[in-house]
Amino acid sequence: MRPKHQESPIPQPRIVPRPEHQLSRKDISVEALKVLYRLHHAGYLAYLVGGSVRDLLLGKKPKDFDVVTDARPGEIRKLFRNSRIIGRRFRLVQVFFRGAHIVEVSTFRRRSEFDETGEEAVPARDKAYGTPAEDALRRDLTINALFYNIEGFSLVDYVGGLEDLRAGRIRVIGDPGVRFVRDPVRMLRVLRHAARTGFAIDPGSWEEIRTLGHLIRTCAPARVRDELLKDFHSAAAGPFFDLLLRSRLFYAIFPAWDSRLDPRGEQRLVDLMGRLDRLVNASYHLSDSLIWAVFFTPLLERESRPGSFKELREFIHEKLPEALGGIEFPRQRRDEVALMLALEEIAADLERQQRPIPVRYQRLAAFPEVWLLHQIKETPDKDLLGECRPLEITPRPSKPKPRRTRRRRRRRG
What we know:
Elements: E1 14-16, H1 30-41, E2 46-49, H2 51-57, E3 66-69, H3 73-79, E4 83-86, E5 92-97, E6 101-107, H4 125-128, H5 132-137, E7 147-149, E8 154-157, H6 161-167, E9 169-170, H7 176-182, H8 185-197, E10 200-201, H9 203-212, H10 221-232, H11 237-246, H12 249-253, H13 263-281, H14 288-300, H15 309-324, H16 331-352, H17 359-362, H18 367-378, H19 384-387
Parallel strand pairs: 3-6, 9-10
Antiparallel strand pairs: 1-8, 2-3, 2-7, 4-5, 5-6, 7-8
């Protein structure tokens, strides 16, 4: 057991006792409570942290619960046999429970890996750990840096996150310009949380996003792609892409769209993303390929396209890398998206002519999603949930197996 940290007198935390806030243990998962109590009873600090605290204070149900403590990863591992240590540089512990529930437990850290420079960029393991105050200050946004202390059931706020929650404000911890330069992906996170909560972005942060948006091109393409996929599936893609366009961060990520997407095209993109949100909220399963096909629609609608299926597919396949900018896109995904977009256009043209869709197209494995893509693009808003359903295709009758004729053996005379 380690003695409790003595926090620096600056900053002093704001402690909100249980009678003065609405966060209740009954809203915390049983698995997270087990982790918190075991750490607490072993003599360690044990805080619920991050998005789970924010969501509970907003009256939402968190998707997962993260715990932070002053216990080191090895000490946490000894307390929980049903756990494993992951990560090389900054290790954390995953605690496993029945029903595929996982609670991630990390040790208080001094700073984010993106805020380290010089010799600090390769810290000794002991120097990477810090105090609760340091751990709060290293986080991106004030509303994501709140702690819930299982000892006394109080809220701990080092950064003014509670005030920002009440004011409906997204504010970066520290100087936004410095934080964005050190990790430009933070700009995406600001827009994401503004879209999901409906909060206003702090004016200083908004201006820095508009000024420093070009820095997003310095980030690893796969990392930017993965961040965007989170927003595609978030049920808040519409407001997110609206902010992305208004801040012009969208055109820093996808520069080829800048001269091709007029205000009507921008509105078309936001509308299509809003349609995806409605389907996600209605528990539709939407594949990444389908979502990317919806995303590319406004750009392709403004292009002169060939008429035949084969030429159209090749045309789209060649256009996708340019449209993606530097975003990393696996070849298989590009093939799937090109097939879906080309086949949807052929199907839409046939439907306008009131001609049947050839069975050879309907038998393709991608066709149910192609039909869903067509419905997302064409169905009136008021009928979206009622009409967006996979096309029912009558199964092809199986051919009877040919009977084997037995050759009669000739008798020898």
